[in-house]
Design goal:
Structural class: alpha+beta
Helix content: 40-55%
Number of strands: 8
Largest sheet: 6 strands, antiparallel
Strand content: 25-35%
Length: 204
């Protein structure tokens, strides 16, 4: 448990892009906990309020479709985000989640939704589906790993906010410089006109 937690901490350290982090995380996490299907949803906001939007997926059959989105309280993902605790489904119906490959299409036996929290706020939800039941060590590992992921997600979000603010300030500085140049040019034109008027007045 400790070895794998340390491995994931090293892997996530210094990451600055959410999509890269999500893809890398699922590629390592799914095989480790014997999951055959996985999705990461991150918390976002639009004009209607907060929502969970699909960031990355593992072995997804809808890869080229529009990203899945869930409002708070909507479905297992939305409910997991509201409750702030994991939801485990180990009685998956026959016609529900299927794991597919070129050779088979099998019903997932267990599906788990895990909230990723930072200081009590939900940053993301990770959904995993497995052909087998998740074991107690898997559960313990996932619970502890989500804490580390929450810290990394918060750091990336803070970095992205800082970069956006820096870009805005740079754009504002460039705009002010342009305005200053235009003002200087206007002042020079006014000075030229004033000099011409003075010369005309002297001639008169």
């Amino acid at each position: 448990l400790k070895t794998n937690l340390a491995k994931f901490s090293r892997m996530m350290q210094g990451q600055r892009d959410l999509v890269t982090l999500g893809n890398m995380l699922l590629a390592e996490l799914a095989p480790l906990v014997n999951a055959q299907h996985a999705i990461v949803y991150v918390m976002e906001k639009d004009s209607d309020g907060p929502l969970l939007k699909q960031l990355s997926s593992y072995a997804d059959t809808r890869e080229h479709a529009a990203p899945r989105c869930y409002r708070l309280n909507e479905g297992i993902i939305g409910q997991c985000a509201v409750d702030g605790r994991r939801i485990l489904l180990d009685q998956v119906p026959e016609d529900a989640v299927h794991v597919t490959s070129g050779l088979l299409s099998a019903r997932a036996r267990s599906v788990i939704a895990l909230p990723v929290l930072f200081e009590g706020q939900v940053k993301a939800v990770i959904e995993l589906a497995s052909l087998q039941e998740f074991t107690a060590p898997h559960m313990a590992f996932l619970e502890q790993l989500t804490d580390s992921i929450g810290v990394v997600l918060n750091t990336i979000e803070a970095t992205m906010r800082t970069e956006r603010l820096l870009q805005q300030s740079q754009e504002l500085a460039a705009e002010l410089q342009t305005q200053q140049s235009e003002l200087q040019q206007t002042n020079e034109e006014l000075a030229t006109k004033a000099r011409l008027l003075a010369e005309q007045k002297a001639e008169v």
